[in-house]
């Protein structure tokens, strides 16, 4: 009789929470699609009301990566293009072919049209570093998250976060840093209106590639970002709400202008988005911003949250989420 001893297979796991982020200066366009190297630096705030919790289990017995979000399994293709990119890097660091199971959950409805990928990928990166005991710095981890999904690199930090576009071909200087702490501007609030919408037809990934290849206005937008980046930072440093709101709206408009300038036709806003834009601009004490979808993020000061919320409800918002500036990701022990 053959006496087979089973070789012990490695199994490690860890769990982390990461915040969602909303960009003030938007990322829209890449100079390298493999490494997600952006055409411009961007700036976001991390949100304390929207977070994702991800548990990762690496096990030498697994035959492929499996990812579930709120219990729903992603297709192999979806895994490969996002979380799989991150897991490949960790496998490389580790030096062994070891697959993972990722269980991710959001504290907001996944059908609400709020992007979960940034926070989800950031939480996965933090958890993987912990599980494999790699002790990589936040800066290194932000470069790994960037390769999973660009905007995810900003969710590695709390407060106000700058993603430096970098110049190098290999992306080693394209990482994030916290430029102001979470408590820098305590009465600044993001009021998020959730409207019932179907899933967006064109992902950020393919939309921004289409803009990069086809928009002739993109060059002007990059000049605008370059010219006003320092001003955005100054408005935050000095807590100049009026200027911050104005720049927030102009940067959102600038991104949606080059989206509209793309071919084939592309647009993420709808009639209600334009009504929101008009109301907020007239209101004067708030600033709107939209990502690749019609749900508005309206920045305002605490004393005006009620009025902004009532406006969103009168426009038919099914839910209004009120968020302050949040802290960065953390490990759950
Ligand atoms: P976006 O954030 O650009 O709006 P989605 O939320 O549609 O994009 O997510 C895009 C992809 O990101 C998904 O297909 C999935 O592969 C990956 N993803 C999203 N959320 C998570 C998560 N919580 N954990 C791991 N991967 C995620
Ligand atoms: P300034 O207000 O111009 O002194 O810039 C303050 C901060 O903004 C510094 O950390 C710079 O790195 C950053 N910054 C200024 N201009 C840009 C730009 N065009 N792109 C990216 N970051 C910028
Ligand atoms: C509109 O980070 O989702 O939210 O790098 O291809 O994964 P990939 O794109 P993604 O794009 C986010 C675009 C945005 C603006 C922003 O967050 O800066």
TrEMBL record:
Pfam families named in the record: MDD_C, MVD-like_N
Record's GO cellular component terms: cytosol
Domain Diphosphomevalonate decarboxylase-like N-terminal: start-end pairs: 18-175
GO MF annotation list: ATP binding; diphosphomevalonate decarboxylase activity
Assigned EC number: 4.1.1.33
Top-level taxon: Archaea
SUPFAM superfamilies from the UniProt entry: GHMP Kinase, C-terminal domain (SSF55060), Ribosomal protein S5 domain 2-like (SSF54211)
Protein name from the UniProt record: Diphosphomevalonate decarboxylase
Gene label: mvaD
